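Fold sample X.
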Amino acid sequence: QVQLVESGGGLVQAGGSLRLSCVASGIIFRINAMGWYRQVPGKERELVAEITSGGSTNYADSVKGRFTISRDNAKTTVYLRMNSLKPEDTAVYYCSCRQSGIDYWGQGTQVTVSS
């Protein structure tokens, strides 16, 4: 079992920045991809950004150039730096990781961007 704990969400004005963190713990032997998803009420959860164990990254078109995903050397912590935030970035952000073909999820952290 892998546990994921997110932190760093909050309220910010449009144009501002936030950094989300997610720490993985538990039975960890080789975490593959780690990523961030977000969800607003009434909509499906969507991928925001992901990073593989090799460091390759993938971003949703809506956040390219504004958000940056990174991972620590131990590969158990993933960050999401969010710049130039927009009201449409408001959502609950979830951390996810994959190990041995199983996807794990954090409890989510609220990000609210005011106009």
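Fold sample Y, listed below.
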Amino acid sequence: QVQLVESGGGLVQPGGSLRLSCTTSRSISSFNLLGWYRQAPGKERELVATLSSSSGTNYADSVKSRFTISRDNAENTMYLQMNSLKPEDTAVYYCYVRRPLFGGSWGQGTQVTVSS
């Protein structure tokens, strides 16, 4: 069982920035897929960004050029740098990791609220 601990959410004004972190209980190098998803009230969970060992990075059109997914192998941590935040980015953000043969695991979620 993989444990994921998220941090970094909060309240930010439109145009501001936040960085989300997700620390894994296993070596982050053991995962072939890292991802961030979000779920706004009344909506389904949606993909924000993924980082794959085989195909690199992938972003939802709504966040391209504003968000960046990255990883720090030494810290076993993945990040989501979010710039130029908009009110429509308000959601609970979840990190996700997938390990070959073992399937995926989700973080507990962290609230991001973009409001003036």
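Sample Y note: The chain has a mean pLDDT of 96.
Also: The two ends are 40 Å apart (CA to CA).
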